[in-house]
Amino acid sequence: MSTLNRLASTELWPALPYDAWEDTLETLHRKIQVVGKVRLALSPPEPQWANVPLYLTARGLTTTPMESAGVIFQIDIDLIDHGVVIETTRGESRRLALKAQPVADFYVQLMAELGALGVRPEFRPVPDEIVDAIPFAQDTIHASYDPEWAHRFWRVLSQVDLVLKEHRARYRGRTTPVQFFWGSFDLALTRFSGRPAEPPPGAGLLMRRSEDAEQICAGFWPGSPSFPQAAFFSYTYPKPDGIEMAPIRPAGAGWDRVLGEFAYTYEDARAHASPRLAMLEFLESTYAAGARLRDWDPDLVAP
């Protein structure tokens, strides 16, 4: 790759080292969970938690419109100007700053702004899918916010969103939209075979509703303490015997024992001559491995 092309590629796919923005990530994760819980509380339940995710916009993330006590509204998370915006169909608009501020303060302010509009969602005010979760109203620990890193994360999401949509386009079966799960904090797409599946023995509510259908899910997430690097992931459920040995592309991608699924680090993708093509290779090859071992209909993917 020429120096000019490499510079262009790194501009589109900026570095996102986990250690550099871990504190901002932890705070942002929890604040976005507050917004996500409002969507969960005010939307009718759908299979595989389809009523839960947020969706990308040209500026960040959105709940899409919801209704409460006759008020139709949506909440947008602006990762360019760094704010949370509540807008109603009556023309009202409220804005909270995303800044270095405890989660507890953000939670109280958001609930107050919603209440002033006549919106009073009821939900369990504790983060989900987080170890040692602190109730929102008590969380004075997570207060970091670096706008540059939050914006960089958004830039990466906006690129990944387009590639996932490209991958989705060829599938003739049922798929989810490309969606952002605020619990696991990942941008993901799931394809379904059309056959039911049994959730794992002893599964909790989250797993019982999400793993009752055969599926192959893939996406991107920024890392976690147990896997401190941004990466693309893919898994098949139910997990086929021997899938760990399946040949996966591109070079550097493969089965990760810590995650229990296929992974391809974001840094490896950035180093590729075409990060977009590398990501598509990962998506297509991991899908092919799962679909072959689960005997999915090959005609589900358009030529």
Characterize the structure shown.
It is a single chain. A hairpin with a 4-residue loop joins strand 11 (254-256) and strand 12. With 303 residues, this protein is an alpha+beta fold. The strands form two sheets. Strands 1, 2, 3, 4, 5 and 6 form a six-stranded antiparallel β-sheet that branches. Strands 7-8-9-10-12-11 form a six-stranded antiparallel β-sheet. The two termini are 29 Å apart. 34% of the residues lie in helices and 21% in strands. Helix 2 runs parallel beside helix 3 and helix 4 crosses helix 7.
Protein traits:
alpha+beta, 6-stranded antiparallel beta sheet, 7 helices, 21% strand, globular, disordered N terminus
Taking all Cα atoms into account, the compactness measure Rg is: 20 Å
| Count of DSSP strands | 12
Mind summarizing the main beta sheet? 6 strands, antiparallel
Task: Identify the overall geometry.
Answer: globular
Q: Which residues sit in consecutive blocks of at least 5 with pLDDT less than 50?
A: 1-8
Q: Which structural class fits the helix and strand makeup?
A: alpha+beta
Question: Can you give the helix content as a percent range?
Answer: 25-40%
Number of helices: 7
**Proportion of strand residues:** 15-25%
What order do the helices and strands follow?
HHEEEEEEHHEEHEEEEHH
First-to-last CA distance: 29 Å
- Quote the average pLDDT: 94
